[in-house]
Amino acid sequence: MMLEDFRKVMVNQQWEEGQYSHEDILRCMKKVIPLDLKQTVQVDKDLVIRAYYAGHVLGAAMIYAKVGDAAMVYTGDYNMTPDRHLGAAQIDRLKLDLLITESTYAKTTRDSRRAREREFLHAVHKCVSGGGKVLIPLFAVGRAQELCMLLDDYWERMNWKIPIYFSGGLTIQSNIYYKMLIGWTSQKIKDSCRMHNPFDFKHVCHFERSFIDNPGPCVLFATPGMISINAGFSFEVFKKWAPSEKNLVTLPGYCASGSIGHKLMSGKPKRIDIEGTHIDVRCQIHQLAFSPHTDSKGIMNLIEFLSPKHVILVHGEKPLMAFLKERVESELGMPCYYPANNESISIPTTQHHKMSATERFITSCTNEQTKDSLQRRKLFCGSNMSEANDDEKLAEGTLLMEKNKALKILCEDELVQLLGMDRHVIQYEPMAASRIAAAGELE
């Protein structure tokens, strides 16, 4: 659904027309195999994968992968704290060579969820009470559902009739899946669902384009979240509502550099110039981190909990990743990397190999153990118990490594026989004391 939405955006904006088609998406989906949480899948004889709950958005998962003895976790995006509709990420304590983690908020520590919700509701309340319109630019999956739940509950308590709107078809479509897949939400949502599905919003309805110029207060959720220039309905509404001092634009998530959202967050501009035209910005601007990504504290907590031998940071801004790398190495003592696109990183791993032993080798070991046991008995008779306990017998053999064959341990005699060689033994006779003395005089 999201691939198709992105394809339409690309075609409409003429960014990368023809990169992939609707038919390509259908062919791709035929290859998708559903994976349940904590389900272990043996992909082939070497590769094993397992999915863990990541929070973030509905269906997000961390992936544990193991090839032989080398193990890693790739997180994608995750959230270490629960929000209003999803639980916190959950993963077992694993023995890892490598953790690849997102680092979107590498240097940001957020306030508590309750504090952010209070601040958000206060800003919205103040605006609509004064007759203003609230534009909330966000992405269709995740924040739309969380904030709709928050406002729906608040409207119910306040007994307000002020309209709350969804703008896009994608938001409505994705909400259907939230209603269906309650098992992936937080425990609180699962419990409350027995009485009423929390994603059946009582006060939220669909927004028509003709409503833009309607008088009176309202709240509108519109995509995309960054108010991208000439892309999406949030930009169209922003142009209409930004010139009024009564209105409010509240930005609940991350905005990339170059977007209008980023310009608004960087300091309230009085005017935004776009392709020869300008938009007067007199509306109120409110920024609040309702992002589904974990913050820097959450990233450090996950790294410390998993304690991998190596860490790679991805999905972040270079200066912030450099800051987080220093923290990981200095505070946790783990080698940390943040490679650029197309850059290769080599991670050393410890490998353990299974090997077989020949029957003759095992027999020789048994014989040696029998001899050793007799020696121990003599020691026991002599009341030298400590010496017997400290005595360890090592079995000596030869490791045979042949191409495309399992490793094997042989006796020395077997190796000589395998190579078709004669066994040569060198013995030294003891030298008499008189000869040793004579040799010393010659020197």
UniProtKB/TrEMBL annotation:
Q: Where is the signal peptide?
A: none
Any idea which UniProt keywords this protein has? Hydrolase
The residue ranges of the Beta-Casp domain are 144-264
The organism of origin for this protein: Urochloa decumbens
Mention one GO molecular function. Answer: hydrolase activity
For this entry, the protein name equals: Beta-Casp domain-containing protein
